[in-house]
Amino acid sequence: MIKWFGILTSVLTMSLISSCDLPETKEGDVVAKVHAQTLYDSDIPSWITGHADSVQLKEVFVDKWIRDKTVLTAAEKELKSSVDIDKLVNDYRESLLMLQFEQYLITHHMDSIVTQAQIQAYYENHKTEFVLQEEAVKAVYIQCSDAASVKVIDKAWKKIKPGSWSISMDSLNCSHSWVNDQVWLKKSTIESTLPDNIKSKISWKKNGKFDIELDSTSYFIYLADVVKPRELSPLSLVKENIIKLILHKRKKDLMKEYEEKLVQKGIKNKQITLVK
């Protein structure tokens, strides 16, 4: 790459500067030129010039500069008549300012705390937004291939009932497990770890207990409770989404209120004039 870079630099420099000597200026020695643009030695970042591999790093830097300026020159030539660069830059600048100002208002003027009461109220007032697309379950799920662990699980499995699981999974050698049947999960959370021929053997429509062995692996699934699709989702499954929705509404309301204050202030101070 370095060898190629040397050839490229030589060709471009010779073709663009012709046979003129590169002058010494207040910016330092000229390193390269692309059309009317000049790269001076002083433009090379200090972290490059002070690096142990400064020669190679400088070559890479100059190579990129030449390539970038060459493409930019071509872009300016080809797009000059069809693209209003100044407008694009100004639009981008305004968008950045608006975004930064919005973030400033959120940080300094918006209450970011959402209470459980507010979450509950939103949930109650927007129930149609939280209809399940799949089953929600309270479950105990264990996938295990270790014979000794399976023996321990099998003994407890015969007596399992809601909230009764007390065996620590840390003492067992199992690949997947979820034993808190007091917490709601989406069916897909469990299904994502199951082989297809095991999924087909599970009925998710009602409470039930399944103990299936396949290829020396035992799958234990206990459904303590089930909420069916098209029914209202349990609150715990949509809580984080509700918090986001509440904060998003607060942000919109804050921006609208602040915007209106600024406009009214501008009209009052005759800084805004509507010409009919």
Which helices and strands occur, and which strands form pairs?
Layout: H1 2-17, E1 24-25, E2 28-34, E3 37-40, H2 46-49, H3 54-79, H4 85-109, H5 116-125, E4 136-144, H6 147-157, E5 176-178, E6 184-186, H7 187-191, H8 196-199, E7 208-214, E8 217-227, H9 235-268
Antiparallel strand pairs: 1-2, 2-3, 4-5, 4-6, 4-8, 7-8
Helix pairs in contact: 1-3, 5-9
* Inertia-based shape: flat
What is the top-level CATH class of the largest domain?
Answer: Alpha Beta
Strand content: 15-25%
Major sheet description:
5 strands, antiparallel
Q: Can you put this structure into words, describing what you see?
A:
The chain has about 280 residues and is an alpha+beta fold. The chain folds into three domains: about 80 residues, no CATH class; about 90 residues, no CATH class; about 100 residues, Roll (Chitinase A, domain 3), CATH 3.10.50. About 50% of the residues lie in helices and about 15% in strands. The protein is built from nine helices and eight strands. Strands 4, 5, 6, 7 and 8 form a five-stranded antiparallel beta sheet that branches. The longest helix has about 35 residues. It is flat and about 85 Å long. The two termini are about 65 Å apart. The N terminus is likely disordered.
Could you give a quick summary of the protein structure above?
The chain is 49% helix and 17% strand.
Keywords:
five-stranded antiparallel beta sheet, 9 helices, three-stranded antiparallel beta sheet, about 280 residues, about 50% helix, alpha+beta, Chitinase A, domain 3
